[in-house]
Structures are given as structure tokens and as C-alpha cells.
């Protein structure tokens, strides 16, 4: 398996939300509403920022975005370096950071292979 | 290659490419390009070979350019929108060893294959897919001996000129010139600490391709769009939180004319570089109003890229009324360029019009097949007419060849085009001289307007008479749904004149 995917699939890693131009809970909500969130794994070489299409059924998105309080779990599937993976990202709304991991998906497994 | 390889060392795990079929880290793009280089070598491509790239935009093109450069071969892109006859003729003149074509493009290469029976034809999609399969298997252990060495004079690319007033010429870029181009672009990108996210929506065969490499050297990610589509571009900016773009003025005009533009969140944009053709002051102001203080402009030529730069702060200030005239400027010379108006070596006279002449490191790049390559310290005549003001800002007036002599009066087409473009709802304008029994040439404007709007010929002529005077205003206006473009999307005045002449002849018949 690809080295980067293997590393991010082993254990959990520090992450933060990739938000532009401002890092706010409201900006994160806008991204979630549009169905696409940037998640940055900060402990990789240079930092790996993935664009994650939000899978609403698997994600837990109930939180107080207005006050910036609570935690969301964003889940979505993507292909990284030739490998189909599922990204799991837990983000605290106050710090807009948290922990995350990748789960490789195989044909006949939990996800689909592209 | 050195610049990209340095980026791989620094940013190995960052994303370098986002495509429809997935995302690729710098390390993965590195391996992909090495695997693709092996496949191309197996097809017989060697150091010094010229390799044509005849394809619309795709992420695979960037990877294959890296692969060709790794082999020490020369990357020869063709304008994405060039006609078959034009692209084929251009490539024939380069005597290529191989041509990379997009799916379905083999049929267009009949002439080339007849002319060069040993021509290697490779599908970009096929070689990319195979390289991806190989890369997925070998991981980071893939290696190929880079054959680019450190020979700075080696020709890494041959790029066609825009072909606005003549047939495109083939310009050779040495490794030095290529790296200088990337350095100049890095300077213009106004990079801050955040990772650049660059949307390549215009042809990679020209400025968007160089910008993609510059973005990589900054650890940024490139998103490549197959073709320009206004709604798709705006959708990508919003969703992918795009920070950087290059746009030719025509593409900018299309975005600004999009009726639901305001519904898209474009607040992530930090640098939208406009270039390739002159852009009107009105359009720049409109762009600042729509996208915020992120618009910058560059002026240059394929032979001598990035001669001047108008930075985003200056444009934003001018749009707000501080030195508003600077919206008509193309900026000040970039640090490595010496620019004069008039004769080489002579001081420029402020506000006096003349030919723009330049010299600088690595420019001008020589033309393919030119026996007399320019000396390193030679001056380059751009063929563009302009002037400088007391602050050092350069103002483009037009091409020397684009001068219309009407009733013994010199009329620069660009002056008239700028005047017409200042009118609301005029999307594009091209001005040419048409044969006239009394004036010698008569100023004629070809105009496209925003969808759902109309502008009358009388209004255009009256506006130009008020701003330029009666002698320089168009005598007539043709309205058109679109204006013919060259292979790189610039206005094709040769085709325009031909169309108008044919129409005149048909009218007489």
C-alpha cells in the first residue's frame, strides 16, 4: 500500500480544518453545507490537506456552530495516491482541530473501489 | 526538474494534484512522473527528442511534462484550441520524435504521420493510466535516472507564440529560461504562509502551465480543468476554496458576465493573475468589485515572459480612486528586466510613445530554427508600443503591427478597443483596419455583448468619438456572437480580417 495512506491509516493523527479566508466555526458550517470540507493532517511531511466530500449519513454534524461549541465528526470517501479511502475527522468547534484517520476501502468491503 | 524535486523533498505528503479520479501527493506525482518516463523511454523517446503534446487540459499533461523533462527530451505543447491544420503544421515544423495525444485525437494526426512515418504516437490517457498502475505497485521505490543533468542551456520546452497578428512562432526555452520564468511567477503570486490552491482553467500550453509549476515550488496544489466553463470555474473556487488562478481577459469577462456570479463564495481568492492580452481598466475595476482585492496583472511575451507586473494592492487602490489611471497600466518592470521605450540603451522619455524594448537574464528566448540566436546581453524589440509615467508604470498602447493608418492618422487598435470595452455590457472587442478607397484604411470594430443585452452601433461610435476624437473612432461596427481565437485563446486578427474581407467580397458578388 502507498506509504502516506499506510501512515494515515495507522492510529489517529492530529488534524485541523482547512478554512479560507477565515478559520471560524461559521466558515466550517458553510463548507459542510456545501458538502466538501478540507481536513489537514498536520503531522505529515509538509502537512496533508485532503478535500473530503461529506457523507451525511456517516457524519455526526449536530453542534452549536453559532456559539462555536461542540464537536463534529466528518466522514467521507476519496481516492488518495491510488487508494480508495474513507476519512474520519473529529473536529472541536472551538479550536477547529482534533484527530483523524484514514480507513482503506477494498472492493466488497465497506466502501466502493474506483 | 530541480525545482520540482526540491518541492518533493519539502512537501512530500502534501497534495500536488486534485483530479476527478483522485488526489495525488507530491511523492505520488514524483513516482508517477518517473513511471511515465520509463514508459516513454520504452517507446523510444530519448534525450534531445522533441515531444509534441496535442491535448486539451488534463492533470496527466502536467505529470507527462515532468516525465518528458526527466528524460532530457523537449516538451512541445500545442495550443489547446488550435485548429487541426494549424496544430499539425506547427508540429511538423518542429520535426517531433513523438506526439502525445488525448483520447480520440489520433485521427487528427494523419498528416503528421504521413510526414514522419517513424513518429511515435502515445495516448496521454493510456500512458497516465499505465503509469498510475505501475506507481501503485512500486510505491516510492520507483526510480529513473534523470537525464536533465545540470546543463542550463538544454532546451526543456518549445512553446508557440500567441499568433495574434501572425502565424505562431516556436520559442525555445532553456532550463535557465524556464527556471527564471518560474522564479518570476513565484514573485508575482504574492505567496503567504498558507498553501496555494491553484485552479488551472485556461490552457496549460501557455501561462497556466508555467503557473502550475510555480505553485508546486511553493508547495501548492493544482486543480486542472479540462475546459473553461464559467459556472464550473465558480463552483470549483467555492468548493475547493481556490486561492490562485491565471485568467486571460476573455475568461475574466465571461466570469464577470455570469448572471449568478454573486451567489458563489469566492472569498478564498488571494491572487487572480490576468494576462496574455491587455485588459481594460473598466474590466479590472469590475473584477475588484466582484472578487475583492486579489486581482493582479502581468505583461510579457512567450519570447520574454513577465516583463511587468501590476500588483493586487496597486490595482485595488486604483479601483478605489487612488491613481485610477494605473488601471490602464500593465505595471512596473519585474526585478530582472531592464525596460526602455524607443531605442535600445537610450533613456525613456516620460509619456512619449514608442516601441517597448527590454533585456534581462535568459531573455529573449530564441526561435526554433533561428540560425542567429540572440546574445545574452542583447536587447529585444517587443513589437509593442507603450509609454512610461513618472512613477515607472508602463502603459501598453498596442502592437506596432496593429497600427491602422486611416486618413494619414495613426490609430492604435488597442486604444479603440479600450474605449469600446469601457461601455457597459460590451464583452469583447477587436479593432482592425479595413481597406477604404478614401482613407486607405477605415477603423472597424467587431464586438460581442453580454447575453441578454444589446448595444447599438451608433452608441459605440458616438462614445468613441467623444473619448478618442472623430478621426480615431470606428467608422463601422460588426456584432458577432463570438470573436475568432488563436490556439491559445487570443483574438485572431488574421482570421478576423479574412472573415471580414470574405464577407465584403460576397457582398460585392
Structural features, described:
The complex is a heterodimer of chains A (about 110) and B (about 500). Chain A has about 110 residues and is mainly beta. Chain A has one domain (about 5-100): Beta Barrel (Polyomavirus Enhancer Binding Protein 2, Chain: A), CATH 2.40.250. Chain A has two helices and six strands, in the order H-E-H-E-E-E-E-E. In chain A, strands 3-2-1-6-5-4 form a six-stranded antiparallel beta sheet. Chain A is globular, with a radius of gyration of 14 Å. Chain B is of the alpha/beta class. Among the domains of chain B are: about 1-15 and about 25-175, 3-Layer(aba) Sandwich (Rossmann fold); about 335-400, Roll (Luciferase, domain 3); about 405-509, ANL, C-terminal domain (GMP Synthetase, Chain A, domain 3). Chain B is built from 15 helices and 24 strands. In chain B, the strands form six sheets. Chain B has a nine-stranded mixed beta sheet, with helices on both faces. A four-stranded parallel beta sheet of chain B has the order 4-3-5-6, with helices on both faces. At the A-B interface, helix 2, strand 2, strand 3 and strand 4 of A face strand 2, helix 2, helix 6 and helix 9 of B.
Biggest sheet character of chain A: 6 strands, antiparallel
Q: How far apart are the termini of chain A? A: 16 Å
Please state the CA-atom Rg of chain A, rounded to the nearest Å: 14 Å
Which fold name corresponds to the CATH topology of chain A? Polyomavirus Enhancer Binding Protein 2, Chain: A
Q: In what range is the share of β-strand residues of chain A? A: 35-45%
Which structural category do the helix and sheet elements of chain B fall into?
alpha/beta
CATH top-level class of the domain at 1-15 and 23-177 in chain B: Alpha Beta
Order of helices and strands of chain A: HEHEEEEE
Amino acid at each position: 500500500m502507498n506509504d502516506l495512506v499506510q501512515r494515515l491509516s495507522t492510529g489517529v493523527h492530529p488534524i485541523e480544518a482547512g478554512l479560507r479566508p477565515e478559520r471560524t466555526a461559521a466558515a466550517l458550517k458553510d463548507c459542510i453545507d456545501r458538502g466538501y470540507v478540507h481536513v489537514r493532517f498536520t503531522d505529515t511531511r509538509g502537512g496533508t490537506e485532503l478535500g473530503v466530500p461529506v457523507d451525511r449519513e456517516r457524519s455526526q454534524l449536530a453542534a452549536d456552530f453559532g456559539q462555536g461549541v461542540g464537536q463534529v465528526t466528518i466522514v467521507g470517501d476519496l481516492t488518495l495516491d491510488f487508494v480508495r479511502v474513507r476519512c474520519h475527522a473529529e473536529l472541536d468547534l472551538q479550536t477547529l482541530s482534533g484527530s483523524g484517520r484514514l480507513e482503506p476501502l477494498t472492493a466488497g468491503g465497506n466502501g466502493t473501489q474506483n | 526538474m530541480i525545482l520540482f524535486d526540491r518541492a518533493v523533498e519539502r512537501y512530500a505528503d502534501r497534495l500536488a494534484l486534485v483530479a476527478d479520479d483522485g488526489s495525488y501527493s507530491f511523492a505520488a506525482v514524483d513516482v508517477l512522473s518517473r513511471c511515465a518516463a520509463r514508459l516513454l523511454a520504452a517507446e523510444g523517446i530519448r534525450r534531445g527528442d522533441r515531444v509534441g503534446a496535442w491535448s486539451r487540459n488534463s492533470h496527466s499533461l502536467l505529470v507527462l511534462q515532468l516525465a518528458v523533462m526527466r528524460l532530457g527530451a523537449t516538451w512541445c505543447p500545442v495550443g489547446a484550441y488550435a485548429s487541426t491544420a494549424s496544430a499539425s503544421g506547427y508540429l511538423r515544423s518542429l520535426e517531433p520524435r513523438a506526439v502525445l495525444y488525448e483520447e480520440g485525437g489520433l485521427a487528427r494526426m494523419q498528416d503528421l504521420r504521413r510526414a514522419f512515418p517513424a513518429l511515435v504516437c502515445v495516448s496521454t490517457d493510456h500512458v497516465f493510466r499505465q503509469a498510475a498502475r505501475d506507481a501503485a505497485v512500486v510505491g516510492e521505490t520507483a526510480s529513473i535516472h534523470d537525464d536533465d543533468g545540470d546543463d542550463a542551456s538544454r532546451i526543456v520546452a518549445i512553446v508557440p507564440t500567441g499568433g495574434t497578428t501572425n502565424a505562431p512562432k516556436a520559442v525555445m526555452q532553456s532550463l535557465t529560461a524556464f527556471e527564471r520564468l518560474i522564479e518570476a511567477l513565484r514573485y508575482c503570486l504574492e505567496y503567504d504562509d498558507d498553501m496555494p490552491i491553484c485552479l488551472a482553467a485556461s490552457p496549460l500550453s501557455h501561462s497556466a502551465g508555467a503557473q502550475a509549476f510555480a505553485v508546486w515550488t511553493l508547495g501548492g496544489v493544482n486543480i486542472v480543468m479540462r475546459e473553461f466553463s464559467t459556472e464550473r470555474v465558480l463552483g470549483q473556487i467555492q468548493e475547493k476554496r481556490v486561492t490562485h488562478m491565471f485568467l486571460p481577459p476573455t475568461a475574466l469577462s465571461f466570469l464577470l458576465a455570469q448572471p449568478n456570479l454573486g451567489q458563489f463564495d469566492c472569498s478564498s481568492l488571494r491572487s487572480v493573475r490576468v494576462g496574455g492580452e491587455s485588459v481594460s481598466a473598466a474590466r479590472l475595476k469590475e473584477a475588484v468589485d466582484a472578487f475583492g482585492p486579489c486581482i493582479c496583472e502581468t505583461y510579457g511575451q512567450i519570447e520574454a515572459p513577465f516583463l511587468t507586473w501590476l500588483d493586487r494592492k496597486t490595482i485595488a487602490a486604483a479601483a478605489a480612486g487612488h491613481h485610477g489611471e494605473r488601471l490602464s497600466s500593465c505595471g512596473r518592470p519585474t526585478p530582472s528586466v531592464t525596460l526602455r521605450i524607443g531605442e535600445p540603451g537610450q533613456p525613456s522619455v516620460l509619456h512619449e510613445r514608442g516601441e517597448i524594448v527590454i533585456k534581462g537574464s535568459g531573455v529573449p528566448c530564441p526561435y526554433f530554427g533561428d540560425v542567429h540566436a540572440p546574445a545574452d546581453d542583447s536587447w529585444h524589440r517587443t513589437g509593442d508600443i507603450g509609454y512610461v509615467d513618472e512613477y515607472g508604470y508602463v502603459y501598453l498602447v498596442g502592437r506596432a503591427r496593429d497600427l491602422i493608418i486611416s486618413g494619414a492618422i495613426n490609430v492604435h487598435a488597442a486604444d479603440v478597443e479600450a474605449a469600446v470595452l469601457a461601455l457597459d455590457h460590451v464583452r469583447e472587442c477587436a479593432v482592425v483596419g479595413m481597406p477604404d478607397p478614401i482613407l486607405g484604411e477605415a477603423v472597424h470594430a467587431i464586438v460581442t455583448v453580454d447575453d441578454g443585452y444589446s448595444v447599438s452601433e451608433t452608441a459605440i461610435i458616438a462614445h468613441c468619438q467623444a473619448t478618442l476624437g472623430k478621426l480615431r473612432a470606428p467608422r463601422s461596427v460588426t456584432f458577432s456572437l463570438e470573436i475568432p481565437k488563436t490556439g491559445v485563446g487570443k483574438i485572431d486578427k488574421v482570421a478576423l480580417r479574412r472573415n471580414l474581407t470574405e464577407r465584403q467580397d460576397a457582398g460585392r458578388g
